[in-house]
Amino acid sequence: MSPASSDLIIEIAYIIAAALFILSLKWLSSPTTARRGVFAGEAGMLLAIAGTLLHHGIVDYKWIAIALVLGTIIGIPLGRVHMTAVPQRTALSHAFGALCVTLVGTAEFYLRAPDLPKFMMSVLSLEVILGSLTLTGSLMAAGKLQEILPQRPITYKGQNFVNLSLLGVAMVIAVMLVLDPSKLYLYPLIVVIPLFFGVMMIIPIGGADMPTVISLLNSYAGLSAAAMGFVLDSKLLIVAGALDGASGFILSVNMSKAMNRSFTNVLFGAFGQEQASAAGKEEAKPVRSATAEESAAILAAANKVVIVPGYGMAVSQAQHKVRELYDALNKRGVDVKFGIHPVAGRMPGHMNVLLAEADIPYDRLLDMEETNGDFQQTDVALVIGANDVTNPAARSDASSPIYGMPILDVDKARTVMVIKRGMSAGFAGIENPLYYLDKTLMLFGDAKGFVGNIVRELAGGGHA
Amino acid sequence: MKLDLLSSLYVFMLAAFIGFEVIRRVSPLLHTPLMSLTNALDAIAVVGAIILAGEHKTTLATILGTIAIISATSNIVGGFIITDRMLRMFKPSGAKKA
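Above: the input entities. Below: the structure tokens describing the complete assembly.
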């Protein structure tokens, strides 16, 4: 085949692949067509790789074959992780994507420098800077989620200043390279400084900020891939990168809205502050608590129950017990739904995946708006391992650090039950007035154990 | 050169708009699979790495290209597998258990 005709075939394969990628995301919009979306994505990917292998510049397939096999061997276990490990797996895959982009950018630089037009060098710098900071940032996030690294946010004075200066220095060096690409010795700096910045960026991040951070890293990974598309003049890569970047951007905006943070606040990595310690309010206010037996009786007498899960449910692996509770109540004719806050868990959609894994039908999983319209007619709101996302202070107390944050209005239900280990404050260190309401019953204990006890009571006398 | 660049910018602009419109419609229910799927699609960067590793222009480029193929391929394979596993779990009410 002549180079010209193979190039044409490759380009046609790429155009079809790009169309398949867009269809893939379009079909993902509904659970009924979503699996078709995965299939379209796979087909596009195979087509693009097969087309690329025809490229006339390829003189040796040995390393390509070895690398494809090795990548597959690493990829299979990464696709088979347990559902509770999905957030850290996602962070790790952002790191892998960023690694690929950074390495290709570096190789391209040394192949072409100093013969790099200004625009080319600019996008190459963008590709490498975004790639490097996403690489280490994602590894740090994965380490925190896997609990290899300490999860407590580490903050110090002037943190934002230090971080922004690091990024600023990297950009200045990038500009110097754009003006004079023959300064080869400068190049390693635009890799190393962002690598360091990525680490510093994640240090102040705590667990509850993870959904925002993972989305943001997703967006960065996509944008760096799009920049790589400009460098390699690959329209397919530009399309895929733009789609991924847009997806990460939309999710970041959603998450920051749900966390009541401005998007600029998020963009500049200024997470994890506002750890306003509400010290001095330590007087013990009375709360009403209840046993599993009492809660089972109340739940059985209800017509409508909304369960509000949070990260605590994931930690105690309670989703399968929750499913048993759902079945037991359903059998008694109780209408049970789930109200899911956008930032419940450690990544967007985390709770939905865990509950779907426990075989709870997806039409029972409602988002925040749908649920909030329902609470007035709800007999019991059962909160399992969620705290700040149910705090009515976000609506009423202008002095609260979470004032304005959209919450699930569980306090509008007739009875509220909260399963919680103890009276400690939530992630943000803010007291939750919900717990002191007359209609609220505190169910103290481990989520999995307590739900299990309720299920046993419902099954008819737990006194076996 | 200049024209190539402009047409690339056009492609980027259009793809970004399509991305926003398509992804806005994805239900929050499926945001986790959305992220793993876009991640797998993003690994299309592998095509650039394949050419680098196959061209054998310099040893450095071949080594970097080979490592880049490994990391992108692991994302493609792992990303598609886990997305499909997650989506298989989402069932409507009344569906028979698998």
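Note for the figure: Chain A has a mean pLDDT of 87.
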